[in-house]
From TrEMBL:
<feature type="domain" description="HD">
    <location>
        <begin position="58"/>
        <end position="176"/>
    </location>
</feature>
<dbReference type="InterPro" id="IPR003607">
    <property type="entry name" value="HD/PDEase_dom"/>
</dbReference>
<dbReference type="InterPro" id="IPR006674">
    <property type="entry name" value="HD_domain"/>
</dbReference>
<dbReference type="InterPro" id="IPR050135">
    <property type="entry name" value="dGTPase-like"/>
</dbReference>
<dbReference type="GO" id="GO:0008832">
    <property type="term" value="F:dGTPase activity"/>
</dbReference>
<dbReference type="GO" id="GO:0006203">
    <property type="term" value="P:dGTP catabolic process"/>
</dbReference>
<dbReference type="Pfam" id="PF01966">
    <property type="entry name" value="HD"/>
</dbReference>
<dbReference type="Pfam" id="PF19276">
    <property type="entry name" value="HD_assoc_2"/>
</dbReference>
<protein>
    <submittedName>
        <fullName>HD domain-containing protein</fullName>
    </submittedName>
</protein>
<dbReference type="InterPro" id="IPR045509">
    <property type="entry name" value="HD_assoc_2"/>
</dbReference>
Length: 385
C-alpha cells in the first residue's frame, strides 16, 4: 500500500472543476522545485501574444493531465481492474511530470537548446540530485526509472505509455480543452466525459466502444482546428522567431557584450542550470539588452518586450519571389510543421465493435478517411522586417 495524504487534496481547475490528490507521492512531486518551475513556463509559447488570455502555464496543464489519468485509473472499469495499485501510481506520477523538460516558451526553446523536452524530462527524473527523483524514490526505489520508461515507451506494460502519449491520450485531451478555454476559442472542445465512458481495454490496448466513435471524430476535428487556428498562428510564430533571432544574435556577439542573465544558456547542460532557465530570466535578459551597444540586439529586445512583430506573407512552395538574405528574413515550409490531426500509421485509435473486434478508426469513420486523404499544405511562410 502506498502512503495516502492526511486528507484528500483538491485544487480548483477551470477545465476539470477540481484536481484530486490522495497519494502522498503525487503531493510530494507537485511540491518539488522542478515541478514548481513549470509555473514560469507558458503552455502555448508565443500564442499569448495573439490570444491575450492564453496566460496559462505548463504547471496547470501537467496537473490536468494527471487528473485525466487519475480518472482513467479510478473510473474506467477496464483500466482500473487491469492495473495494480503500483502501476496506477507509476502512470499518475508519469502523467504529472511528463513536461518537466520544457524550456522557456515551451516547444520553441527546443530549437535553441537542441534538446527535446522528453529527453530533458527523463534526465531530471533519473538525476539522483533532483528533488523530483528523491520524491519518487521515497515512495518506491524503482519509481524514477519506471516513470522514465513510461515516457520513453519502454515500460513492460505498454498501456501505461498509451494513456500519456498516443493518438488518444490524456496529454492531448487536456491541452485541447485547456487551450480552447484559455484562448477563448470554441472549436477545441469535445466531450471528455463521453470518451471516458466509452474507453475500454482489449488485449492490453486502449480502445473506444463503437458507440463512442463520433465523440472521437469530434476530438480529432478539435485538434485539426486548434492546430490551424491557434498552434500554428503566424503571428505567434513571428513572436517566437524574434526570440530565436535575439538568442542567435547574442550568441554571435557575446564575447564583446555580456548579458549576465543569458549566459546560462551557453553553459554545459545540467539539472541545476536547467532549473534556472525560465521565462522570468529571459525577460530580464531582454530588458538588459535594451541598454546594450548592439543596435540589432536592442531592436529585437524591443520587439519582444513591446510586441512589434515581423511581417509575414504566405507563398506557394514553388514561388519564384526572391527575398534578400538578412537578419530578419526567415522562410519556413508549412509542410514541415507537425499539423496532421491524426496519423494512423504511427498507432491507430482502435474501435471496439459489437463483435469485440478492434478495428482501426479509419475503417469505421468517413470523416477520418477524408482527413487521411487530405493534402498537406505545401505553402511556405516568409517572415521579414
Amino acid at each position: 500500500m502506498f502512503e495516502r495524504t492526511n486528507e484528500n487534496k483538491v485544487l480548483r481547475d477551470p477545465v476539470h472543476g477540481y484536481i484530486h490528490i490522495s497519494y502522498q507521492v503525487i503531493w510530494d512531486c507537485l511540491n518539488t522545485k522542478e515541478f514548481q518551475r513549470l509555473r514560469r513556463i507558458h503552455q502555448l509559447g508565443g500564442n499569448y501574444m495573439v490570444y491575450h488570455t492564453a496566460e496559462h502555464s505548463r504547471f496547470s496543464h501537467s496537473l490536468g493531465v494527471y487528473e485525466i489519468i487519475r480518472r482513467m485509473c479510478e473510473e474506467v472499469e477496464d483500466i482500473s481492474s487491469s492495473l495494480t495499485e503500483f502501476e496506477k501510481i507509476q502512470v499518475m506520477c508519469a502523467g504529472l511530470i511528463h513536461d518537466l523538460g520544457h524550456g522557456p516558451f515551451s516547444h520553441m526553446f527546443e530549437n535553441i537548446l537542441h534538446k527535446n523536452h522528453e529527453e530533458i524530462t527523463q534526465t531530471l527524473i533519473l538525476d539522483e540530485n533532483t528533488q523530483i527523483h528523491q520524491a519518487l524514490k521515497r515512495a518506491h526505489k524503482d519509481l524514477p526509472s519506471l516513470c522514465a520508461s513510461i515516457l520513453n515507451h519502454t515500460h513492460p506494460n505498454s498501456m501505461l505509455s498509451q494513456m500519456i502519449s498516443s493518438q488518444l491520450d490524456a496529454d492531448r485531451m487536456d491541452y485541447l480543452l485547456r487551450d480552447a478555454y484559455e484562448t477563448g476559442t470554441s472549436y477545441g472542445k469535445f466531450d471528455l466525459e463521453r470518451i471516458l465512458r466509452t474507453l475500454r481495454v482489449s488485449n492490453g490496448i486502449l480502445c473506444i466502444k463503437e458507440s463512442g466513435m463520433h465523440t472521437i471524430e469530434d476530438y480529432i476535428m478539435a485538434r485539426y482546428h486548434m492546430y490551424w487556428q491557434v498552434y500554428l498562428h503566424p503571428d505567434a510564430r513571428s513572436y517566437e522567431i524574434c526570440i530565436e533571432l535575439f538568442i542567435k544574435r547574442y550568441k554571435e556577439i557575446r564575447k564583446s557584450i555580456k548579458i549576465e542573465a543569458l549566459e546560462i544558456l551557453f553553459e554545459p547542460f545540467n539539472s541545476d542550470n536547467f532549473y534556472l532557465m525560465d521565462e522570468n530570466r529571459l525577460f530580464y535578459g531582454f530588458q538588459q539588452a535594451l541598454h546594450c551597444e548592439d543596435e540589432t540586439l536592442k531592436d529585437l529586445a524591443n520587439r519582444i518586450l513591446n510586441r512589434i512583430l515581423l511581417n509575414w506573407i504566405e507563398l506557394e512552395e514553388d514561388s519564384s519571389l526572391h527575398f534578400e538574405k538578412s537578419t530578419y528574413c526567415v522562410i519556413e515550409n508549412c509542410k514541415d510543421l507537425n499539423c496532421l490531426p491524426y496519423q494512423e500509421k504511427e498507432n491507430p485509435i482502435w474501435i471496439l465493435n459489437t463483435k469485440n473486434q478492434c478495428i482501426p478508426l479509419s475503417d469505421c469513420s468517413e470523416i477520418v478517411r477524408a482527413l487521411l486523404r487530405m493534402d498537406i499544405n505545401h505553402k511556405k511562410r516568409v517572415f521579414y522586417n
